[in-house]
Amino acid sequence: MLYSLRGTLVHRDMAGAAVECGGVAYYCKTTVATLAQLDQVGSEVLLYTYLQVRSEAIDLFGFANLGELSCFKMLTGVSGVGPKAALSILSSMTPEQFALCVASGDYKGITAAPGVGPKLAQRIVLELKDKVGGKEIAEGFSQSGGTVLPAGAGNAGEAMSALMVLGYSQSEAAAAVGRLDPSLPVEELIKASLRELAKR
Length: 200
Prior knowledge:
Blueprint: E1 4-12, E2 16-21, E3 24-29, H1 32-37, E4 44-53, E5 58-63, H2 66-76, H3 83-92, H4 95-104, H5 107-110, H6 118-128, H7 135-143, H8 154-165, H9 170-178, H10 186-198
Antiparallel strand pairs: 1-2, 1-4, 2-3, 4-5
């Protein structure tokens, strides 16, 4: 299994980039976010990769950080979510924003991605809600230098996790959520906490 590619960027287009390693150029399909982080053709780049082998095709996907890769693998593990839909979602939002949508049950936020309808978005939230805050996504964010989602109990814990994904410290998240009724829905806790934090 290919873990990553480090080499010279020899081509880029709207759907991906080609990286030359040892005289061989590997084309990786990727997200808008990763393409935006790549330097000019001729520069050295590093992409974390995922190789998908199917009966009709072998596709290589590349990402600028492990957070995107982690989310991509989780998304393609959801029934009915193919690589095209996963790339569309991660081109429309960051891994942190995606985690917030899942943690708060905001499936409508995911439908902002082209080609992703309400039914598919609801399935994504349903199947991944238990993983947001769990080992898979935490490892991805940790290795990419992002925020690790803590495992929290109940709605308050989930709201704290989502706030920390957005960049707030554990103490800031705890202080904001602690002023609210913990029995409120996760989405309401997050929105109210963000309003409170914005006043500071």
